[in-house]
Amino acid sequence: MSDKRETTAGGQSGSGLLPGLKAEVEQRDYLSRETLEGIAGQAGLPLSSVYGVASFYAFLPVTRVGRNVIKVCNCLPCDLKDAQGVIGSIKKELGIEPGQTTADGKFTLEMVGCIGACDQAPAMLINDKLYGNLTSEGIAGILKSY
Amino acid sequence: MGNVNVIIDGKKVRVREGSTILEAAEVCGVTIPTFCHIKGLLPTGVCRVCVVEVKGSKTLVGACHTPASEGMIVSTHTPRVVAVRKVIVELMLTGHTGDCVNDPNAENCKLHNLASDYEVGAPRFNVKSPRFYPAEESNPYVRRDLSKCVLCRKCVKACREIARKDVLSIGYRGFRSKVVSGYDEALTAEVCRDCLICIEHCPTGALGKPVKV
């Protein structure tokens, strides 16, 4: 077994990767190539491996995002409580599709897996703030407050 | 380490403890189909083509990564195994976008060969938006056509464990999963040279030599 394989398979040098990526995201809005190169260098991992980890997680953006990131839960409980209606309302309000950023750079709309707020379905996060029990009608008011 | 005794398709075989079912099967001359496995490297266990039935196990297990244990009774070609394998191949074919029918290299496509071995017809599953990536010709040594890629990870492993270059990884998740190089960039000659080991291992023609015009 090669040493290299062990490190890249999540061995010791890869173990601090997620906290490191999270700390970077808190300081800047997304993980640029330069940022990931720095982290990869420190961890002794190839850039592609670090990018692979970052791109797996919805909360570690690897593309430039707007000033406010809307993460709408796309899982079953939210879906059953008409998340689709809410998503439609956001799309209409902002004129963008999931994965896109508004022209003024104010909002990015993303679909994410469960955000742990099933009791308040349908739910979404705007940046770190949780909005639950959403209705299609209530979306415009929430977005206006930003 | 001691030895373990297992029975595979009725054949008794004694192998070193820690050997996989696949390795044990090889010793006693039983062929189990594999797809994502590269002999001699650590198993990946992602394609599930090598699933077999183990007596006492509720689910089928992957032969390439399950260690043989004392007294294990393995069946490699029961109707249940074959039926499951068929669907597995069908699912992989579904994600295997590309013009294989008209492709001169299609006969080299191990997925198509496997599909014909198991008499898998056209996949039943509808895909809302097929995975499509433009073919990439930015590297003078490797042509990448990721629409054909079925994410078996052989290239990632070959690059990492055989070539010791570690250029490739799996990025994104779920349906968007993709083999990425660097910051999901084109595979340039700067990072990837002419060892061609990944091409050798790619079962689907997603990696190939550049087409000379």
Chart the SSEs and their pairings:
The complex is a heterodimer of chains A (146) and B (213).
Chain A (H helix, E strand, L loop, with lengths): L2 H6 L8 H11 L5 H11 L3 H10 L11 E6 L2 H5 L2 H12 L12 E6 L11 E3 L2 E3 L7 H6 L2
Parallel strand pairs in A: 1-2
Antiparallel strand pairs in A: 1-3, 3-4
Chain B lengths: L2 E6 L2 E6 L4 H7 L23 E4 L6 E2 L10 E3 L3 H16 L15 H8 L25 E2 L9 H9 L5 E4 L6 E4 L15 H5 L5 E2 L5
Parallel strand pairs in B: 1-5
Antiparallel strand pairs in B: 1-2, 3-4, 3-5, 6-9, 7-8
Helical/strand content category of chain A: alpha+beta
Number of helical regions of chain A: 7
Could you describe the largest sheet of chain A, including whether it forms a barrel?
4 strands, mixed
What string gives the helices and strands of chain B in order? EEHEEEHHEHEEHE
Uncertain residue segments of chain B: none
**Tell me about the biggest sheet of chain B?**
5 strands, mixed
Query: Mean of residue pLDDT of chain A?
Result: 88
Quaternary state, please? heterodimer
CATH class of the largest domain in chain B: Alpha Beta
CATH architect. name of the largest domain in chain A: 3-Layer(aba) Sandwich
Shape descriptor of chain B reads: globular
Number of domains of chain A: 2
By DSSP (H or I, 4+ residues per run), the number of helices of chain B equals 5
The helix content of chain A is 40-55%
Kindly provide the name of the CATH class of the largest domain in chain A: Alpha Beta
Describe the protein's architecture and organization:
- The complex is a heterodimer of chains A (about 150) and B (about 210).
- In chain A, about 40% of the residues lie in helices and about 10% in strands.
- With about 150 residues, chain A is α+β, with helices and mostly antiparallel strands.
- Chain A has two domains: about 5-55; about 70-145, Glutaredoxin, CATH 3.40.30.
- Chain A starts with a helix and ends with a helix.
- Chain B is α+β, with helices and mostly antiparallel strands and about 210 residues long.
- Chain B has two domains: about 5-75, Roll (Ubiquitin-like (UB roll)), CATH 3.10.20.740; about 90-210, Alpha-Beta Plaits (2-Layer Sandwich), CATH 3.30.70.20.
- Chain B contains five helices and nine strands, in the order ββαβββααβαββαβ.
- Chain B has helices spanning about 20-25, 80-95, 110-115, 155-160, 195-200, and strands at about 5-10, 10-15, 50-55, 60, 75, 145, 170, 180, 205-210.
- In chain B, a hairpin with a 2-residue loop joins β1 and β2 (about 10-15).
- Chain B is globular, with a radius of gyration of 19 Å.
- The relative contact order of chain B is 0.14.
- The interface between A and B is medium-sized, with 17 and 17 residues.
